[in-house]
Write a structure and sequence with these properties.
With about 300 residues, the chain is α+β, with helices and mostly antiparallel strands. Helix content is about 45%, strand content about 10%. The protein has helices at about 30-55, 75-85, 85-95, 105-110, 115-125, 145-150, 170-180, 190-195, 200, 210-225, 230-240, 245-250, 300-310, and strands spanning about 15, 160, 165-170, 260-265, 270-280, 290-295. Helix 2 crosses helix 4 and helix 8 (about 190-195) packs antiparallel against helix 10 (about 210-225).
């Protein structure tokens, strides 16, 4: 049985960049620090419970037994037995108690709950097994060479987000398609806030729910890495208070990596636009994500975009 370890503990109208204005990472001190650790334990507990309840006994390899089960999914004792830990220890973990968890135990639980790569990494972050993100410099300026590269992509909308999902750089076509970023305040340029709280942005997407859920799941990974940063807690609080969808989906603990795929946009001037989009993490600033939208060659999107390119 795995050992149970306890611990009592360029700048124009549409070719633009902005200082991210995110400042240095704020860490709580005194009672605030204890509150942050308590929150981390609760997040881990909630995550484990959601993953336990979605896994059926059959999927976990347990024998089928006729009769009703009160528990939807696996029971705590089943997870404990399959993971090689005591029931009391696993129960404490799901109760959010201040238990220090070893890497060996986490790997065992991940296998039992059949977590994918993103979910496993997310669990490790919540269990404090990965280093939290380093403090962000006071000013994050987008290198001119990076802005130049984005500007040269004249036929493809592109924007850059930081580790808080703030849009900190963009090209002209991104402004035409997604909104006039230079005229927005900091909150309106936050991709998560914009997705859930700005109606005209929401109306761009026919499959808004899928897009919003994926973005929230990506944002949750950032949240886990930066739980000591007061900005994240305040932003999540605002979104839960103002968006019923965010409040509901946040409790599901879904996690998602850097996105790629297809996206359809209903533009007020151009009509239906179809893109294939890719997102890239920068080597020199790995928490910044550059997303580019390539017109789907099977559609007339490229032709529609020409009116914005020549205007």
């Amino acid at each position: 049985m795995v050992n149970d370890v306890f611990c009592e503990k360029k700048e124009s109208v549409c070719n633009n960049t902005v200082n991210s204005g995110i400042g240095s990472t704020s860490f709580f001190v005194g009672g605030g620090e204890a509150m942050s650790e308590s929150q981390r334990h609760k997040e881990l507990a909630d995550f484990l419970k959601t993953r336990r309840l979605r896994l059926t006994p059959q999927a976990a390899g347990l024998p089928f037994r006729a009769g009703s089960r009160r528990t939807k999914g696996l029971r705590r004792e089943e997870v404990a037995a399959l993971s090689g830990v005591s029931l009391a220890w696993y129960t404490y973990l799901e109760q959010g108690r201040p238990i220090r968890v070893s890497e060996q135990v986490l790997e065992s639980i991940a296998r039992t709950l059949q977590l994918d790569v993103e979910e496993r990494n997310y669990m490790f972050v919540l269990a404090n097994q990965l280093l939290t993100a380093t403090a962000v410099p006071e000013e994050n300026r987008v290198p001119p060479s990076l802005q130049f590269m984005m500007d040269e992509m004249e036929s493809c909308p592109a924007y850059l987000i930081d580790n808080r999902c703030n849009i900190i750089a963009w090209n002209r076509l991104a402004c035409e398609i997604f909104g006039n970023f230079p005229e927005m305040n900091d909150l309106e340029r936050n991709l998560v806030w914009r997705t859930f709280m700005v109606p005209e942005y929401r109306r761009l997407f026919g499959d808004w729910e899928t897009i919003a859920k994926r973005l929230l799941a990506q944002f949750r990974i950032y949240f886990a890495k930066n739980m000591n940063d007061q900005w994240y807690n305040e932003m999540v609080g605002k979104l839960k208070q103002n968006s019923p969808e965010f409040a509901e989906w946040w409790q599901q603990h879904e996690v998602f990596g850097i996105p790629a795929g297809k996206k359809e946009i209903f533009h007020s001037k151009a009509g239906l636009l179809s893109f294939i989009y890719h997102s890239f993490s920068l080597v020199e600033q790995q928490e910044w994500i550059l997303t580019t939208f390539i017109p789907d060659p099977k559609t007339d999107t490229g032709e529609k975009l020409k009116k914005f390119i020549v205007s």
